[in-house]
Amino acid sequence: MNIFLLEDDEAIGIGLKYSLENEGYTTTLAKSVSEALKIISKTDFSLYILDLNLPDGSGYDVCKRIKERGDFPVIFLTAYDDEVNVVMGLDIGADDYITKPFRVRELIARIKSVMRRCGKDRTEQIVKLGNVTVNLNEAKVSKDGEDIILTAMEYRLLLTFLNNRGKVLSRNKLLEEIWDVDGDFVNDNTLTVYIKRLRDKIERDPACPQIIRTVRGLGYVIEND
User: Fold this and answer.
1) pLDDT digit string (tens) for 147-172?
2) Which of 23, 50, 89, 116 meets the CB 3.0–4.6 Å disulfide criterion with 6?
């Protein structure tokens, strides 16, 4: 399931993205209303999680635009818990409302509850990449029926490609998306190592990769079927 997350606090946004991806959800993060509107104008998501107060506007504005595109489920995040804000959010179409601070497990439970109510919960999220199978719900990867053990960083890198399937990702874009487990940026040399290790594990012939393809001079891509 693909989730859109709008959160301007960098630490909170990165932490939530990491937690959601560990739960098997592919997650796209935006930090402003303008960035959010650009993304949602091109892509539909299974569920939207929107911070209420942004530096250039309100999550309400983004919610209205989402609802114009379709009846997609929306959960608001906010530091305010007064009745006026709750009612306003629900009136414009929000499906749930969670007040900061909150525990990640609480958010995950709310996500599952909203998706069940919307009739869009899937018991199993499976992605096929040739002879490789990715079970997003269980965060498991197999090749030719045999389980592949990926490190946390390798799995996060794979999720980044899956979340942008069909799009060429530059090295700079990948560096923006991928953090190491201690919260430090991965440098360019380390990224090269991670891509090589991931290819070694999932490709039939890592010397001639067919899943994670190199687009010379531009970056890397996992093609759509």
Assistant:
1) 999 987 888 889 889 888 888 999 98
2) 50
> Nearest CA to 93 among 132, 126, 50, 53?
50
Q: Which residue has tokens 């012939």?
A: 205
pTM: 0.55
CA distance 61 to 115: 22
Give the end-to-end CA distance of the chain in Å, rounded to a whole number.
17
* Backbone torsions φ then ψ of 48, nearest 5 degrees: -120, 130
pLDDT tens for each residue of 3-47 = 999 999 888 899 999 989 888 888 999 999 999 999 999 888 999
Q: What separation in angstroms does the CA of 144 have from each of 46, 90, 97, 199, 208?
A: 29, 46, 42, 15, 18
Q: How far is 6 from 102, CA to CA, in rounded Å? A: 16
| Cα 116 from Cα 131, distance rounded (Å) | 31
Distance from C-alpha of 88 to C-alpha of 109, rounded to nearest angstrom: 23
Q: Which two tokens stand for residue 179?
A: 């953090």
- The DSSP-derived string for 31-44 is -SHHHHHHHHTT--
Counting Cα atoms < 13 Å in the Cβ hemisphere of 43 gives 19
Helix or strand or coil: residue 88?
A: helix
Q: Look at the alpha carbons of 105, 109, 110, 114 in this order and tell me if their dihedral is positive or negative.
A: positive
